[in-house]
Specification:
Length: about 325
């Protein structure tokens, strides 16, 4: 039975799973590891009784050739790290490293909200903000990761995790909102409560400051989305993922749609469908497994990913199912 171990390595959380024939079995969740050794240790613990073809890591950062992390604003401990080689040496099993939004889009195209569209945009808002564009033609599908979180829409604005100022992520990511709420409310946030949950609960109670906060964040997200949509007229649908976007969707939606309506250049985008991902939080696992098997397809005796033939896996091409 084909089975791959997958890791969704985000800015604040690591989740491990086994993926078999499109089914995800969660194994473990913890805070993001601070080193390769810690990641390998978590993988070893989770996989000690599992029989796997290999390991696929979906990482919130720019990755290259299915092998290494070039840069990750929220996982800087892995910047420039040849993660696949190090995991292979430690675990003795093939490993593929893929951008998490490439993975999410592969999964949406195979199993989720993008199975029947020519082109779609996957957008995540969690600790950080990320995105990818999915395109399908008669003979291939392509997944192009992009960095909507690091569009500079407010030059001179707040410092971003990437070190620049005024990025979308610095203003409206879940991580930015958490930091802002901690600074604003400090001890009023109950011990152990995620500040985003504090915001959610205040919004549910109808407290004006929380409704206003969500409205401002939704507007900023809508600006980012409109700019992404302006790149490609054929995008038919937006798929939302990420803890902050999913939990806050009902409060964010109105202002997000208004910003898109006012700033999208293509008429067909002004009322574009925005669908919460039905695969979340498993989309990155499913997509990582797809990337793993497609990377190994036809390479008997080798685990060098086919996607290694291109410059970065920000552009991941593959045959249709
Ligand atoms: Zn940035």
């Amino acid at each position: 039975m084909s089975q791959v171990a997958t890791a969704d390595l985000g800015g604040s959380k690591l989740s491990l799973a086994l993926v078999t024939s499109g089914l995800v079995v969660p194994l473990h969740r913890s805070r993001s590891p601070q080193s390769v050794e810690q990641l390998v240790c978590e993988l070893q613990k989770a996989l000690r009784f599992a029989d796997c073809d290999g390991v696929a890591l979906a990482v919130a950062g720019i990755t290259r050739n299915g092998r290494e992390v070039i840069e990750s604003p929220n996982l800087s401990q892995f910047n420039g790290v040849p993660l696949a080689s190090l995991v292979e040496q430690s675990l003795g099993t093939p490993c593929v490293v893929v951008n998490d939004m490439v993975a999410a889009a592969l999964a949406e195209g195979e199993y989720g909200e993008l199975t029947s569209v020519k082109a779609g945009l996957v957008f995540t808002n969690s600790t950080g903000i990320g995105g990818s564009i999915f395109m399908r033609t008669r003979c291939e599908r392509r997944t192009l990761a992009c960095e909507p979180g690091h569009m500079v829409l407010w030059p001179g604005g707040p410092v971003c995790s990437c070190g620049r100022r005024g990025c979308v992520e610095a203003v409206c990511s879940g991580g930015a909102v958490r930091r802002e709420l901690e600074a604003q409310f400090g001890g009023r946030i109950p011990a152990g409560m995620d500040p985003s949950q504090f915001l959610d609960e205040a919004a549910v109670r109808g407290e004006p400051w929380a409704i206003q906060k969500y409205s401002e964040i939704g507007w900023a997200m809508g600006l980012a989305l409109a700019n992404c949509l302006n790149l490609h007229s054929e995008i038919e649908r937006i798929v939302l993922t990420g803890t902050f976007a999913m939990r806050g969707d009902s409060f964010l939606r109105t202002s997000t749609q208004r910003a898109i309506r006012e700033h999208a250049m293509f008429v067909n985008h002004r009322s574009i469908a925005i669908e919460p991902s039905k695969l979340w939080p498993n989309g990155a696992h499913l997509g990582a497994a797809i990337a793993f098997y497609e990377g190994n397809k036809g390479s008997e005796g080798s685990h060098i990913p086919a996607i290694g033939s291109i410059e970065t896996d920000y552009l991941c091409a593959s045959s249709p199912p």
